[in-house]
Write a structure and sequence with these properties.
By secondary structure, this protein is α/β, with parallel strands linked by helices. It has one domain: Rossmann fold (3-Layer(aba) Sandwich). The protein is built from seven helices and five strands, in the order αααβαβαβαββα. Helix 2 packs antiparallel against helix 6 and helix 3 packs across helix 6. The protein starts with a helix and ends with a helix.
Length: 215
């Protein structure tokens, strides 16, 4: 049932707010994000600075960094993910309760960064766990992390709870855990979680002569 905007505005002046339960539910979740307290490389220094007094992440309701994954709902992958550390990151993700979210902070967490061609660096944490927000940069500044938190909050606020459009954690058939990679003969096995990671298509470069021939 739609409420007249004028009546809604007058009620708000008296401290009475009328809103759908879905909006109240999403508001409460986006205003109480608890990140997991861990860092991997230099991006973690920027993450620490974001939570300190100068940038004050507490203004956005996400200042309670938890020391255990069982009390956290946001994983900030801050820094280079080596293949030795990747199984531990996925294991921490599996221990976090739903609903949970992930922010890939910095070029290394997104794609390997300047170490992309190294044999020991994972080319993106999104190969094993779903990433909600990517922050480019090397390293990204605290303002970039705050912007990512605000972007995630907008995503949480827009969560649809209607049957048929609910997120993955409401699906009873969805897997409760993601596969933890193991050390194989040459690389991590599996090399990626195919259910969530789809490699980009390789586009062949087209020359000017080929374009002219096609008209």
């Amino acid at each position: 049932m739609a409420i007249d905007p004028g009546l809604k505005s007058e009620l708000q002046k008296h401290g009475i707010f009328i809103l759908p339960f879905e909006e109240l539910y999403n508001w409460s979740r986006k205003s109480s994000i608890w990140p997991l307290q861990f860092g991997l490389a230099c991006c973690a220094i920027e993450m620490i600075a974001t939570a300190a007094s100068r940038y004050d992440l507490a203004r956005f309701g996400a200042e309670v960094f938890r020391a255990t994954p069982r009390q956290a709902d946001l994983m900030i992958v801050a820094g280079t993910v080596t293949k030795k550390m990747a199984p531990q990151v996925v294991r921490l993700w599996n221990q976090m309760p739903e609903p949970k979210y992930c922010i890939a902070m910095g070029a290394c967490a997104i794609s390997g960064g300047p170490f992309k061609e190294g044999y020991n660096v994972l080319k993106g944490i999104d190969r094993y766990i779903p990433v909600d927000v990517h922050i480019p940069g090397c390293p990204p500044r605290p303002e970039a992390l705050i912007h990512a938190i605000m972007t995630l909050q907008r995503k949480i606020a827009a969560t649809d709870l209607e049957a048929g459009r609910r997120p993955r954690w409401y699906d009873p058939q969805a897997p409760a855990e993601f596969p933890v990679p193991q050390y194989g003969a040459h690389d991590l096995e599996p090399p990626a979680n195919r259910e969530i990671w789809h490699p980009p298509r390789n586009y062949r470069e087209v020359t000017i002569d080929e374009v002219l021939k096609k008209g």
